[in-house]
Design brief:
The protein is 71% helix and 1% strand. It contains 15 helices and two strands. The longest helix is centred in the C-terminal third of the chain and has 30 residues. It is globular, with a radius of gyration of 22 Å.
Length: 334
């Protein structure tokens, strides 16, 4: 029998370099999109490039991005928290009620963070303690927390916050850099290190990829998930402090609908809604994109309902496109 002719194969002596991987990453695409939107806004409105206008634009995303960083870890672990906007409302209501009793700024900050932590702990206990699905629990607590705010306030509003309290949402650290934007950058670094450079971050990825395997590997899955829901509660409390400080008042409808925008921000940043993958730099770029789009629409006097339609279409698109892309690749490979 004649010897079989083997076709030559080119076997690379090394994997793709880091630069090549970055160029093909989702974050690289987001960077291109962010640059295009920045250039488009600058051409569409002569006021966009004003430093103070750019500073004002950051208020469109900083508070939501604070929560999005923690939400990214929750979704990577295979869970979700839809109660974050209602936690903001309840924490803001608690701070407003405390103001009526004469509490000063330090106490208000402690109350805002404390209510956020308690709400996060409640979610975590129901999910990890009773084994309930996170989407069911957080839909329930979303209604519960918002309902409590409406019971306390009704159609009224809490005002009269101390002048020192307004610095959190209206103060500037240096020149056009607000306290909120500075906090956003600091939290991006903290969560980036936590997710990408620590054992805790690797544990979150492991749980999201295969919870059963992580459990049999000795990972305390329940404890890790409980900590993640504590983080989202804490970040919602922090966002409540900044938002209430910026608005100067509390209404039960505060931050209404933010959970949709926060989840959209996370998924647009490349975090898989099924868990197991995603990066903090991607979430940062997604926050910048959504902030610039919102501010650009505002400069062009686009109605707010158009922004709501855009957010809905964007959420559907960023979830559907990867699935359609994978199906197309499998079809062409056959």
């Amino acid at each position: 029998m004649a010897d079989a002719q083997l076709s030559p194969r080119n076997i690379p002596d090394r994997l793709q370099g880091r630069g090549a991987r970055l160029m093909k990453s989702w974050e690289a695409l987001l960077l291109v999109v962010a640059t295009a939107i920045f250039l488009g806004n600058s051409l569409a409105s002569p006021y966009f490039l004003d430093p103070w206008n750019l500073s004002d634009a950051t208020f469109n995303f900083t508070e939501k991005a604070m929560i999005a960083f923690a939400m990214a870890l929750v979704i990577i672990s295979g869970e979700i928290d839809l109660s974050v906007a209602s936690i903001i409302a309840l924490a803001s209501t608690a701070m407003g009620y405390a103001v009526q009793l004469g509490f000063d700024t330090p106490a208000l900050v402690a109350i805002g963070l404390g209510v956020g932590l308690l709400c996060g702990a409640a979610n975590g206990l129901l999910i990890t303690g009773l084994g309930l699905p996170s989407i069911v629990v957080t839909i329930g607590t979303m209604s519960l927390f918002r309902g409590l705010a409406f019971i306390v306030l009704g159609d009224q509003a809490f005002t009269g916050y101390p002048a020192s309290f307004s610095w959190f949402g209206q103060g500037y650290v240096w020149w056009v850099f607000s306290f909120e934007f500075t906090l956003f950058v600091l939290l991006a670094v903290i969560y980036g290190v936590l997710l990408h450079k620590t054992n805790f971050g690797r544990t979150v990825y492991a749980i999201g990829n295969n919870q059963t395997a992580a459990l049999f590997s000795g990972v305390r899955v329940g404890r890790v998930k409980f900590m993640l829901f504590l983080m989202t509660g804490l970040m919602a409390g922090l966002a409540s402090i900044c938002l209430t400080s910026r608005l100067g008042s509390t209404r039960p409808s505060i931050a209404l609908g933010w959970e949709l925008e926060i989840v959209t921000m996370v998924v647009l940043g490349g975090v898989s809604i099924l868990g197991g993958s995603g990066t903090i730099p991607g979430v940062v770029l997604a926050a910048l994109i959504m902030g610039m789009v919102t501010f650009g629409f505002g400069l062009l006097n686009v109605p707010g309902i158009v922004m709501s339609i855009f957010i809905g279409l964007l959420l559907i698109s960023v979830i559907a496109l990867p699935i359609l892309w994978q199906r197309a690749r499998r079809r062409f490979a056959q």
